[in-house]
Design a protein that fits this description.
By secondary structure, the protein is of the alpha/beta class. It is 36% helix and 24% strand. It contains 13 helices and 18 strands. The longest helix has 17 residues. It is globular. It binds flavin-adenine dinucleotide. The site of flavin-adenine dinucleotide (FAD) has 42 residues, from α2, β16 and α12.
C-alpha cells in the first residue's frame, strides 16, 4: 500500500508532497550490516546516518515511505517533549532527564539542518511555534513552562494581551508561549526527503515489504518478507504506533490516540495578513487540544483528537468549522478541501521507550511529538551501533498498558462525544 490510495490517511500532505523516491519490494535474499523496519522519521534518520558512516543498511517498509505518523502529522517541529522539562526530570531523575531534555531541546536544529544539508523540499518555516493559553489555568501552565525552559537558556518568550492576539490573529487566547527553536514542515515531504537522502548516501529502501518473521541465526538476525529475506548483524525496529502483531510487546505498551486534521482552501491575502501572520504553527493548552497552522499555499490546517470514521466524522468536521469560526471569525464561511487522520503512540508516563531485545533495538512512544525526537533518536541509534555512543534515553523495561483497548476506545469516542457536544476551545 502506498501513502496515496486512501484520501483519509494522508490528505493534504499526499496531495502537495513531491513524489517519493522509486523503490521496489524486497525480492530474494540479501545481507546487510543493519536492517531497519519502518520508513518513518526514526527509521529513515537511522538509515541516513548509518549510510553516511559507510555501513550497509536496508530499510523494510510495510506500506510506503511516511505511511505511519510521519506522513500524517501536523508538522509542528517542536523542542523537547509534551511534558514540561521539570516534569521530565521528576519522572526520570536529574541525570537522565536533563540529558534527554538537552538532546530533544536541540532536536529542531537537527531537523532544519538536515533539511538544509540535503536540500529537502518540505516547506520548512523556522519562525517558532505558539502554545496558546486557554483561560487562567492555561496561562499558569505556560508561565511554568516558560520559567522552566528559560532557566535552561532556551529562546522562549511569553506573549500576553495584544502581542499574543496579534501573533495568533485571534482574541480567543490571552497569552502564548513563543518558542523560537521550533517551526513547521510539510511532514510527508520531509519523510520522502530523508528517504531520498538516505538512498543517495547508499541505503536501500524496500516499500510494500512488511516484515513477517524475525529470527536469530547465530550472530545474525533474519527478517522475512513475503518475497525475500534480509540477514543483518543488527535490527532497528522503528514501527512505533504502527507496530503490528510481530512485535506485540512493543504495541501493548502504546495506547493509540487518534488525531485528525482538516485543511481549508488557500486563504485570501487579506486573511493571511491577520491569521498567524508570522507563520508560526500553534496549538492550545486544552486537554482535547486544537492545533492550527498554515501550509505553503496558505491553507489553514486545523486538528484535534479523534478519528474520522463512523458517526464521529461529521461531529469532528462540524467542530472544526465552529472552532475556526470562533477563533478566526474574520475568515467568514469555511470550506475544507482535505481531511485525514492517524494514530499517536501514547505511553502511560508520557515518556518515550528504548528497548534492546538482543540484536534488535527500538525507540518508540513519542506521545505526539515525534518529528524532532524521531530524527534525533534515529541518529542516536545509528551512533550507538557505529560507535557504542550512549543514547539520550535509558533502556526501559516493557510495561504493558492495562486495559489498553478500553483506553483507546475512551480516547476515540470521548473526543467524538466532546466535539459533538460542542466542546469549546
Ligand atoms: C495525526 C498526527 C499528528 C501529529 N502531530 C505531530 C506534530 O505536529 N509534531 C510532532 O513532532 N509529532 C507529531 N505527531 C507524532 C509523529 O508523527 C510521530 O511520533 C512520528 O512520525 C513517529 O515516527 P516513527 O518513524 O517513529 O514512526 P512512523 O512514522 O509511525 O513509522 C512507522 C512505520 O513502520 C511501518 N511498519 C509497521 N510494521 C511494519 C512491519 N512489520 N514491517 C515493515 N514496516 C512496518 C509502518 O508502515 C510505518 O510506516 C503526530 C502524529 C499523528 C498521527
Amino acid at each position: 500500500m502506498t501513502v496515496d490510495r486512501d484520501p483519509l490517511s494522508h490528505g493534504l500532505w499526499a496531495a502537495s508532497a513531491p513524489p517519493a523516491p522509486k523503490t521496489a519490494p524486497l525480492i530474494g535474499d540479501t545481507r546487510t550490516d543493519v536492517a531497519v523496519v519502518g520508513a518513518g522519521y526514526t527509521g529513515l534518520s537511522a538509515a541516513l546516518h548509518l549510510a553516511e558512516a559507510g555501513a550497509s543498511v536496508v530499510v523494510l517498509e510495510a506500506a510506503g515511505i511516511g505511511y505511519g505518523g510521519s506522513g500524517r502529522n501536523v508538522g509542528l517541529v517542536n523542542a523537547g517533549l509534551w511534558l514540561p522539562p521539570d516534569e521530565v526530570v521528576r519522572r526520570m531523575g536529574a541525570g537522565d532527564g536533563e540529558r534527554l531534555i538537552g538532546a530533544l531541546g536541540e532536536g529542531p536544529d537537527l531537523v532544519f539542518e538536515s533539511i538544509g544539508q540535503h536540500g529537502i523540499a518540505c516547506e520548512p518555516v523556522r519562525a517558532g511555534t505558539l502554545h496558546c493559553a486557554v483561560g487562567r489555568g492555561g496561562e499558569r501552565d505556560l508561565e511554568r513552562r516558560h520559567a522552566q525552559w528559560a532557566a535552561r537558556g532556551a529562546p522562549v518568550r511569553l506573549l500576553r494581551g495584544d502581542e499574543a492576539r496579534t501573533a495568533i490573529g485571534s482574541d480567543a487566547y490571552g497569552a502564548a508561549l513563543l518558542d523560537a527553536r521550533a517551526g513547521t514542515i510539510q511532514p510527508l515531504a520531509y519523510a520522502r526527503g530523508l528517504a531520498t537522502a538516505a538512498i543517495a548516501t547508499g541505503a536501500v529502501i524496500h516499500e510494500a515489504s512488511p516484515v513477517t518473521a524475525c529470527t536469530e541465526r547465530g550472530p545474525h538476525m533474519r527478517l522475512e518478507t513475503a518475497l525475500g529475506a534480509v540477514t543483518a548483524a543488527h535490527v532497528i525496529l522503528a514501527t512505533n504506533a504502527y507496530t503490528g502483531g510481530l512485535w506485540g510487546e512493543l504495541r501493548t505498551e502504546l495506547a493509540g490516540l487518534p488525531y485528525f486534521n482538516l485543511a481549508t482552501a488557500p486563504l485570501s491575502d487579506v486573511a493571511l495578513g491577520s491569521v498567524l501572520p508570522g507563520k508560526q504553527g500553534a496549538w492550545d493548552t486544552r486537554q482535547i487540544l486544537s492545533s492550527f497552522r498554515l501550509d505553503a499555499a496558505g491553507r489553514l490546517v486545523v486538528g484535534s483528537v479523534g478519528a474520522l470514521r463512523g458517526a464521529s466524522r461529521a461531529a469532528h468536521r462540524n467542530w472544526a468549522r465552529r472552532t475556526l469560526a470562533r477563533i478566526f471569525p474574520q475568515l467568514g464561511p469555511i470550506d475544507f478541501e482535505y481531511e485525514w487522520y492517524g494514530t499517536i503512540g501514547m505511553t502511560t508516563d508520557a515518556l518515550p521507550r528504548f528497548h534492546r531485545m538482543g540484536r534488535v533495538l527500538g525507540i518508540s512512544g513519542y506521545n505526539g511529538r515525534g518529528i524532532a525526537p524521531g530524527t534525533v533518536f534515529g541518529k542516536a541509534l545509528a551512533r550507538y551501533l557505529l560507535h557504542g555512543e550512549a543514547l539520550p534515553l535509558p533502556e526501559t523495561p516493557f510495561a504493558r498498558i492495562l486495559l489498553r483497548r478500553v483506553r483507546e476506545q475512551v480516547y476515540e469516542h470521548g473526543a467524538g462525544i466532546a466535539h459533538a457536544l460542542g466542546e469549546r476551545f
